[in-house]
Design goal:
With 215 residues, this protein is an alpha/beta fold. The chain contains 8 helices and 5 strands. A hairpin with a 2-residue loop joins β2 and β3.
Length: 215
């Protein structure tokens, strides 16, 4: 039997090639408590097309040239379709597991950056060899936006560069105090707790505090 949902939870997402780091927090007397630290894949095992569609596209382009563009675009579209399918399945399972623990996932915080100006990921990927890695992260970010909508999870975006300033204002705490809280949650989570997990944690904490302040 599903447990009654008692505690609101925010999930922070930091996209990268192959999926996203996910950290979940709830607040207890305005203090963040770790709920989960995990990874949401956007590709199944051994599914390279879903894992890195723009690397595959760049390789196909170098081997076949402009005449292959239509086929390459179709290849990327299939990879992106698989990404979304995998993300929705994993996200649905993640939300269900939280709800069964008596937790209510009410919002997601999605980290973004200035690379969002890239509008045509395929054309961008075919221009230079160092572009596909950037495109993969942007593609996962777009996939997450679609997945949030399909599972009915509200989300907000936060610029990763300006997140510390946003957090200080939203949480009314000093940088040192915020960092201490995040480090403490990292000790609970165990490895890995790198910059990606820390950023996902902070955006989750900030998103939840901001949401609760509005209500």
């Amino acid at each position: 039997m599903r447990a009654e949902c008692l505690h609101q939870v925010a999930l922070g997402f930091r996209a990268m090639r192959g999926g996203a780091v996910v950290v979940g927090v709830r607040l207890e007397a305005h203090v963040p408590c770790l709920v989960m630290s995990s990874f949401l894949p956007t590709a199944g095992a051994d599914d390279r097309l879903a894992f890195e569609p723009y690397h595959v596209a760049a390789e196909e382009y170098r081997s076949g040239g402009d005449g292959q563009l239509e086929q390459i675009a179709a290849l990327v579209a299939e990879g992106r379709r698989r990404q979304l399918e995998c993300a929705v399945r994993g996200l649905s399972d993640m939300l269900e597991a939280l709800r069964n623990r008596g937790l209510d996932p009410v919002i997601a915080g999605l980290l973004v950056n200035r690379a969002g100006w890239v509008s045509d990921l395929l054309t961008y990927s075919l221009q230079w060899a160092d572009h596909p890695p950037v495109a993969e992260g942007l593609a996962v970010r777009e996939t997450l936006r679609s997945a949030f909508g399909l599972v009915g999870l509200r989300y907000e975006e936060a610029d990763e560069t300006s997140l510390p300033d946003l957090a200080r204002r939203a949480l009314s705490q000093s940088s040192d105090d915020i960092d201490a809280h995040v480090r403490g949650l990292g000790r609970e989570a165990g490895a890995p707790w790198r910059k990606e997990q820390k950023a996902a944690c902070l955006t989750a904490w900030t998103s939840l505090a901001t949401l609760q302040a509005r209500t």
